[in-house]
Write a structure and sequence with these properties.
Chain lengths: 358, 447
């Protein structure tokens, strides 16, 4: 596509809804500012009701922001109706027109743009080839599987060559295996076309697999924006840490500093972890420990007691108590390792560099 | 072999429930006696009424100019009423489901589009005559037209449209609510304006539903007796012609043959509606709404639609207001003041007086519980139970829904009145516009 790539910018966007039962007004999205780089794949991730879909629908033009301005490239688009915006959306329910066949569904946007017939045919065929649906153009949409329907929806969005592609939980109606295949497909196609994509999901593994950048939303505001690695390894708060992957939280006051390491008092034990410069002695801190980052040993680390030991195939799942704190961990490839049983006393061991202090 | 055993066990279990067996037997007897028997009598009358079996009676009635004219009249009225009702119903349904309306205005439209459902059939005919007839308030006193003829084709069409569009409104409202809003959003997202979305998505998805609404209204229209009787003037429809054939010409065989013709038309329409269009509607609109619909707030859509609805609403309201107010005028069309209650007191003293009220209420009180009970039992049996004869019960109930009241009325006169045929009393026929079939309607709708 010879088109200049465009990014999306949200400046202090708010959307106010009214609760239909109580009549109270609340912020679905509150004072949100975002910059989405041209050509990047960005995911809006969060639990239901966090404002991610509302944000996406405001970019598409289906909802109007109550405050703030949305830009597509450098052009403000608040005033534009959805049909005038250079965006195309892939819906959760596919939203294929049931009275059209595959070809007509994909061609619909081009027909509206009064593209000559020959060109429509050529472009539709090319896109159908891209989404691997060649030969299906004569089928009615109810003769397609869920995955195929979503490919048609994707083709329909791509064929009009929008500046931005919007995805509203497009895979949540598919079964687990197909979800994985389709997300790889979506990523492949997005990179091939080089289009800016904004993707809404509540599935963190989808977000990880697809995105250049993840935006985590909670209660209408952005909790954190960053690459998948940044978000996983350096979450800014407990909500983000807990939402992305599994996380254990060890809490305790800082007792001292040792170079770039700090000492924390966790359940009566001294713990040495990588710290930050702005940490103060005596203040309470939380350490984020990922389940795969720790292991159990007979000595060293934090003393603990096993309360659950469960074989999961590729890993052994443990729940241990460090004082009064429950820690979940996964011992991978457990075949030739010592397996601790419930009631065993042992030690929780991890690399001071593999944890993150909030 | 395993299946044989299953069926035998099912039968055994059913027979072990004597109440159920009795209910089924009574029900079958009831349906046979009150629906199949009168219809069978009609068939017998029309084929062998003059002594020998054959089409001679049909030939005779088809040779009558008045009858063939009645057929064309009926079809013409039904067609136009069907289209108008479906369109007005669609308008009100669309406005309710798609457009953000002021609470009061929206509520008013809702009431207006339901009002004709609960009002007696001929109130609108009466208002029409009072407003637009020769001595009509609007025609004579506002527009100074002294010879306006409200009786006839247009009178029937207007009154029937107002009477039947609420049915279309309710059918179409349900369908519109079932359209997944993301279909329309997708079209809009692809670049379609509001009008394009309506033409390319909403309307095609609604087409089978509209056809369905059209046919239901069509059937209602050609079965309607009261309105053509009151406002038809010399413009006869099948229902009134059949009635006159009995009451005027004492020609029961002829009336039976005509009733069979009317029955064939409605049954045909009913079959198309039930087995073709309903299935198609269900096929196009199975999608569940994935999220709430964004209501239209654009003034360019809202204002014209509001004006259309307001005009229709004003007309309906006018029609209903004129009856109670008109009842207070000393002489309608001549003296308007001082208002009087003398007509109200006459209702109870003159003519049939209280007896008319009593009769109406007694009939309602008898038919309502029977209707409710029967529809409940039939729905339960048809949906929840498996037994031999279920197909029969379902089919006959459905048939009752499709049979025009007049047809059943003629069948009843022939089947249940003593052979010394005194001129049948008109009320029994006119009442039968709805009553005998109501329970069957309820039954098949709920199933």
């Amino acid at each position: 596509m010879a088109k200049v790539k465009k990014g999306v910018r949200l400046e202090h966007i708010s959307k106010i809804y009214q609760d239909p039962k109580t009549g109270k007004e609340f912020y679905a999205v509150k004072d949100t500012s975002l910059v989405i780089e041209p050509g990047s794949f960005v995911t809006l991730l969060g639990p239901s009701g966090c404002g991610k879909t509302t944000t996406l629908r405001m970019i598409a033009g289906f909802e109007s922001p109550d405050e703030g301005e949305i830009y597509l490239g450098d052009e403000p688009i608040n005033e534009l109706t959805p049909n005038k915006r250079d965006t195309a959306m892939v819906f959760q329910s596919y939203a294929l027109l049931p009275h059209y066949n595959v070809f007509d569904n994909v061609a619909y946007g081009l027909k509206l743009r009064k593209v000559p017939k020959e060109e429509i045919k050529e472009r539709v065929m090319k896109i159908l080839d891209l989404v691997e649906l060649t030969g299906m153009e004569g089928r009615m949409t109810n003769q397609l599987s869920g995955g195929q329907q979503q490919r048609v929806a994707l083709a329909r969005a791509l064929v009009i060559e929008p500046s931005v592609l919007l995805f509203d939980e497009p895979l949540s109606n598919l079964d687990a295996k197909l979800r994985v295949t389709m997300r790889t497909e979506i990523r492949r196609i997005q990179q091939e076309v080089g289009i800016t994509a904004i993707y809404v999901t509540h599935d963190q593994s989808e977000a990880m697999a697809l995105s250049d950048n993840i935006i985590i939303m909670s209660k209408g505001v952005v909790a954190q924006m960053g690459t998948p690695q940044e978000i996983y390894y350096h979450p800014v708060n407990e909500f983000v840490a807990d939402f992305i992957g599994e996380a254990n939280f060890l809490k305790g006051p800082m007792t001292g500093r040792d170079g770039k390491h700090v000492l924390l008092n966790i359940e009566g034990n001294s713990l040495r972890v990588e710290g930050r410069d702005d940490m103060e002695k005596g203040k309470e801190y939380t350490v984020v420990l990922r389940p795969e980052a720790a292991t159990l040993a007979d000595a060293g680390g934090l003393p603990c007691r096993v309360v659950l030991s469960c074989f999961m195939g590729s890993y052994q799942n443990y729940h241990v108590m460090v004082g009064n704190t429950l820690v979940k961990l996964e011992e991978h490839n457990p075949k030739n390792k010592h397996i601790y049983q419930v009631g065993d006393s042992c030690h929780l061991v991890f690399d001071p560099a593999s944890v993150h202090v909030l | 072999m395993a299946r044989g055993q299953g069926a035998a066990l099912d039968r055994k279990k059913l027979m072990a429930d004597p109440i159920m067996v009795t209910t089924i037997v009574v029900l079958i007897a009831f349906l046979t006696l009150f629906i199949l028997y009168p219809l069978a009598i009609l068939l017998v009358d029309s084929f062998v009424g003059d002594g020998s079996f054959g089409f001679s009676i049909f030939k005779r009635v088809f040779a009558m100019k008045s009858f063939t004219r009645a057929i064309t009249n009926t079809l013409k009225v039904g067609f136009v009423v069907g289209i108008l009702s479906a369109l007005i119903g669609l308008l009100f349904a669309y406005v309710e489901v798609y457009v953000r309306m002021n609470k009061f205005v929206g509520g008013l439209f809702k009431v207006v589009s339901m009002l004709p459902v609960v009002s007696p059939p001929f109130v609108l005919s009466l208002s029409m005559i009072m407003l637009f007839g020769r001595a009509g308030i609007i025609t004579r006193y506002l527009l100074h037209i002294y010879d306006n003829n409200v009786y006839g084709y247009w009178g029937i069409v207007i009154v029937q449209t107002l009477t039947f569009f609420p049915v279309c409104y309710m059918m179409l409202k349900g369908l519109l609510k079932n359209i997944d809003p993301s279909l329309e959003e997708a079209a809009r997202d692809m670049g379609a304006g509001r009008w394009k979305v309506f033409m390319d998505v909403t309307l095609p998805l609604m087409l089978p539903g509209l056809g369905n609404a059209f046919l239901v209204t069509f059937i209602e229209s050609i079965a309607d007796f009261a309105n053509p009787m009151l406002i038809g003037g010399s413009y006869d429809t099948l229902a009134t012609t059949i009635y006159l054939q009995i009451t005027g010409a004492y020609d029961k065989a002829g009336a039976a043959a005509m009733a069979v013709v009317l029955l064939c038309i409605t049954l045909l329409m009913f079959a198309v509606q039930k087995y073709y269009l309903e299935a198609k509607t269900a096929a196009t609109l199975t999608g569940k709404a994935s999220r709430g619909r964004m209501l239209i707030e654009d003034k360019s859509v809202k204002i014209p639609l509001t004006i259309f609805c307001a005009l229709a609403a004003a007309f309906v309201i006018l029609m209903y207001i004129c009856v109670p107010i008109g009842a207070l005028f000393p002489t309608w069309g001549r003296h308007f003041f001082p208002l009087t209650t003398k007509w109200f007191s006459q209702v109870f003293t003159r003519y049939k007086g209280l007896k008319a009220f009593k009769d109406s209420f007694v009939l309602s009180f008898i038919s309502a519980p029977i209707t409710a009970l029967l529809s409940m039992i039939i729905s339960y049996l048809v949906v929840k139970r498996k037994f031999r004869g279920k197909g029969f019960i379902e089919a006959v109930s459905m048939l009752a829904m499709a049979v025009p009241g007049t047809v059943l009325g003629v069948g009843y006169i022939r089947g249940f009145s003593p052979e010394a045929a005194s001129p049948p009393c008109g009320r029994s026929t006119s009442r039968s516009r709805n009553r005998p079939t109501t329970w069957a309607r309820t039954a098949s709708r709920s199933s």
